[in-house]
Amino acid sequence: MSTSQTRTRVAVVFGGRSSEHAISCATAAGVLAAIDRDRYEVVPIGITKTGQWVLMPDDVEALAIKDKQLPEVKSGSGKEVLVAPSPEQHDILVLEPGETPEALTSVDVVLPLLHGPFGEDGTLQGLLELADLHYVGSGVTASAVMMDKHMMKVVFAAAGLPVGPYTVITDKEWRRDKAAAMDAVASLGWPVFVKPARAGSSVGISKVNGPDELEAAIEMARRSDPKVVVEAGIVGREVECGVLEGHGSDLPRASELGEIEEIGAHDFYDFEAKYLNDDGLRLSCPADVPADDAARIKELSITAFDAAGCEGLARVDWFYTPEGTLYLNEINTLPGFTPVSMFPQVWNASGLGYTELITDLIELARERRTGLR
After folding, report:
1. Do 56 and 178 share a domain, yes or no?
2. What pathway annotation does it carry (predicted)?
């Protein structure tokens, strides 16, 4: 038996159709550079912005963000492939024009590094369930519900978790009566944050300081998603906690806390501050939070993880006010995963390095049964 046959074969899937395509590619660069090659055989699969799946070269440099230039999976980057949607085979099929699809290789587990719609929202997870494939991260329901900021808040409130004031503007409501929708927002007070309900990485988000700015902000959010969530501005620190599923019957594990501090020209944690402006923010791990409050945040983060039905991993984001009040902002079921992203950093501060974190997630996926669970 060859060395490759003794290793677990991992399909690393990245790119995708969402506005977070480039960040997904950058995440893949970090993972491909750090994954334990003695333990895992890697099959890199990129998804173009139009949804074509291609077998990609195992090239870290081509996927990294360099000089603020964003990477992209392009058609023609490699052979077109698809995952066989059948529990009878775990094959990657190569597509050649006019030819019957040919099996290239089978895979043991899929590591999705996709963010946003058509990747993080349960759609990819549904395909992998059809194929009876093990994969890293939450299943269809948790992925879909946690991707929708409105439904997420409904679940958290039902679980008794603290959620800040908000309102939702659906596509029908906006087209039917803009004035009524904006009146509902004004009742929250100012400032507010206007967000696409089902996008991520702060794409399409605006901080609105008064009614004159509101309509334009809603229209900008609607370019990413016709459903919009508007949240009351909360004065407080942005504190984040990583959660990992327990092995076997073990309980989920909470990491040390991290904190995001704005130190540049950006007055909130937008896309540019996250990925393109190195001096626009500071990530602190572990966060300087009193021990009792830190313990409470960790405990509530695990409660949120379980309430959402998450599996594998999640990053739980909180607002922590000067008075010690907590508001649950959101859960990310496939959080940013570049080496400098918050999720790997909080686990590194907890004693689990980047390579070990990747290994832990793959092994969790292999342990978990496929299908209903």
Report:
1. no
2. Glycan biosynthesis; Cell wall biogenesis; peptidoglycan biosynthesis
Q: Which residues are annotated as a binding site?
A: 149, 193-195, 201-202, 231-238, 317, 329-330, 332
User: Do the Cβ atoms of 137 and 143 come closer than 8 Å?
Assistant: yes
- Give residue-wise pLDDT tens across range 279-326: 567 789 999 999 999 999 999 999 999 999 999 999 999 999 999 999
Q: Which of helix, strand or coil describes residue 155?
A: helix
Evaluate whether residue 364 is within a structural domain: no
Is this structure's pTM higher than 0.85? yes
Q: Catalytic: 75?
A: no
Q: Considering the candidates 201, 206, 224, 255, report the single residue annotated as catalytic.
A: 201
Contact 141, 41 (CB under 8 A): no
Q: Are residues 281 and 171 in the same domain?
A: no
Q: Which domain holds residue 56?
A: 8-135
Total domain count for the chain?
Answer: 3
Which of 138, 206, 301, 341 is the catalytic position? 341
- Nearest C-alpha neighbor of 195 from the set 238, 229, 149: 229
